[in-house]
Amino acid sequence: MATKFSTTEPDEDALGLPPREIDLDKVARGIRLVLEGIGEDPERPGLQRTPLRVAEMYAELTAGMREDPSEHVKPLPGDKHDEMVIVRDIHFASLCEHHLAPFMGRCHIAYIPKGGRIVGLSKLARLVETFARRLQVQERLASQIADTLYDGLKPLGVMVVMEAEHTCMSLRGVRKTGALTITSAIRGGFRKDPRTRAEAMALIRGRE
Hints:
Layout: E1 4-5, E2 22-23, H1 24-37, H2 50-61, E3 85-96, E4 102-112, H3 121-132, E5 135-136, H4 138-153, E6 157-166, H5 167-170, E7 181-188, H6 189-192, H7 194-204
Parallel strand pairs: 3-5
Antiparallel strand pairs: 1-2, 3-4, 4-6, 6-7
Helix pairs in contact: 1-2, 3-4
């Protein structure tokens, strides 16, 4: 019998996908075929457990497919704040859906509360992690984080800036190590007011 597992209730809205489970046996069989396809012997001692290890790794790296990101965007009861909130340097790792190669970097989130509504700072990191642990492209990743925070918290504005190095660019193809891809997603007041947007960008970059 195939080994399957799921985590929490799946998020059906983020990508318009149905609930999913991980079939570790099927993934392991696929990895075995990959090993055979590149000319390796899956039965040699060093590779005998590799298919299962890789399957378990993919289960971990795609765990966000089985999590509901809206669970991380719930206002803190009793706590209020009306000024800009910024969390910088949230480190993340994700899988590029084009080559299944990792890309890694930092995410910066800024938002302006409305009605004093704020979320726990760790929840912003968990929101990033939930969307990063999926097959992704960086542009969509930034938009999903911004949209979920904007829809769930109803703030005056949201800004998400992401910078990452893509191994599908540094290890293959053009092989340009150290090249950073920077994307942003801007919602609400940050889009309408250039001065507020500039203030947030200055704080994200660490300048007064």
